[in-house]
Amino acid sequence: MSDRGREARRNTSTVPDEAIEAAIEWTVKISFNIPDENTHREFEEWLGSDPRHAEAWQQMKYSQEQLDVLPGHQIINVLERVDEKRRSRGISRREAVKWTALGAILLVVGWGIRNQRPEPGETMAADTEAGARHVLRFSEGTVIELNTDTAVRAEFTRRRRNVHLLRGEVFIATGPDSESAASRPFVVETPFGPLQALGTRFAVRLMTGGVRVAVLEGMVRLGTSGTITVAEAGETWILDARGGRRLSDSALTAIDWIDDVIVARNLPLSDLLSELSRYRSEKIVWDPGAADLKVSGIYHTDDTDGALSILSRSLPIVLNSRPDNRIHVSLMKSAK
Amino acid sequence: MSPAIEQAIRLKIHTLYIDHRCWLHNWLRRRVGCMETAADLSQDVFLRLLGRPDIIHVRRPQAYLGRIARGLLIDHWRRRDVEQAWFEIQAALPGQVQSSPEERFEIIETLMAVDRLLSELKPRMRAAFLSARLEGMTCPDIARRLGVSRATVERDIAGALRHCHRAIFRSEGDPRP
To answer: Does residue A250 belong to the interface with chain B, where contact is any CB pair within 8 Å?
Structure first.
């Protein structure tokens, strides 16, 4: 234990439980949510109002220091592999706990309730219109989130879990499928080939010339035998008629939409406009002259009107509503 | 601890060792399937008895020794699993700088502690906490991913934080390293 830890332990008795509870609540508010200015101010006030508060805050930080030993995703990788090894030995995490902790029977009962048996077959289909979102949940734990203008059909059988991406963009977090005898393969079928998820969270977008896959966790196998490539966590790949190729983009960029935003970093205006266009029923068109203006910023996909008005204020452009409801973007006269 | 009690403990350990050594060794060997590991672990069990004044009054010595042995066995498997997982991941990373044996030891020890700590959490609580703490996700995102309400996620994370805090600051006696 570090000196700081020993010091903190020595002070244990001086920190009342209420201060610890408050520190826990603040950690949730400040570290695991996006706090506004008010919250920040209130937190600073709390922290400064009593030395025991600062001590409680220090203890909270110290108690989780072990989680900084490696980058977060590496720790998750290790923990997942350890779990797999335990499962393969027939000892679940829960049983390991049962052995060490008394009274674990209650927990095991809870575990049983949480895991319902999957239906032998399950079929779901869903689609979204421009600007809409939808979430599909399956009994074995898989969650599929549909972005704007998207259509999917999912068929889970005894042997396979198949998802057909017909249009648009989805985010998939595959379920553990722990109740079926062997975890059933999870495959996303696309016109450019299948994507097989290997214990994974990933985003898939169907585009004109190919399908884009961004992997956040685990791995995704792209294509059929012969042309198989594997996309790993953090990577973004395109699968098209020629096979798979890796893009330099971070996988995180490809899932900004989950947070209802487009994060532009020195992006051509035309790219941003066509992205915004996906979230609107009235499309956006633009003059070639305006296409190459560079934009940076965070634009909200749930308020594309707002995004357009920010653009019109920060760039030398003019917006016009056309009779056919399209928005027309042109360069300001003086800037030409 | 007074010298008299220390003496009594040593005597008791000695008796336990003579009476139950073979039983314990067989019990462990059946589980690890390796004579040497079983021998090491049973030595460790008796070492653990030092500094435990309560053994003087133990009524069912085999149950008592078995409980300690189970704890050690779980740690033995945990160490093996964590080490293997860590080495597999290192091997898969291209161009990774080799870490020194001391660094590796410290990393493995810490990972074991993390695994031990998080094993005790309910699955959903564990998942929520990992997403928040290790993946930098916010509570609304986690709620969406897990398909539960944001309040539930926040309660789960608070529970996990409380658990981490208790493990270090409120544990009775000697905390694990």
So the answer is: no
Tokens of B71: 């704890």
Closest CA to A233 of A250, A255, A248, A212: A250
Nearest residue in chain B measured CA to CA from A258: B141
- In order along chain A (336 residues), what is the average pLDDT of each group of 10 residues? 49 77 94 89 93 91 86 85 79 50 39 39 84 88 91 84 91 82 80 84 91 90 73 89 83 81 87 91 89 88 89 89 87 69
pTM of the entire predicted model: 0.48
* The residue count for chain A: 336
Count other Cβ atoms within 10 Å, centred on residue B114.
21
Distance from CA of B64 to the nearest CA of A (A): 13
ipTM of the complex: 0.80
Dihedral angle over CA of A15, B172, B71, B12, nearest 10: 160
Task: Extract the tokens encoding A144.
Answer: 């599929």
Query: CB neighbours (10 Å) of residue A77?
Result: 20
Contact yes or no for B164 and A135 at CB 8 A: no
Q: What is the DSSP string of B101-120?
A: HHHHHHHHHHHHHHHHHHHT
Q: At what angle do helices A72-88 and B123-135 cross, to 10 degrees?
A: 150
3-state secondary structure of A167: strand
Q: Does B176 touch chain A (CB under 8 A)?
A: no
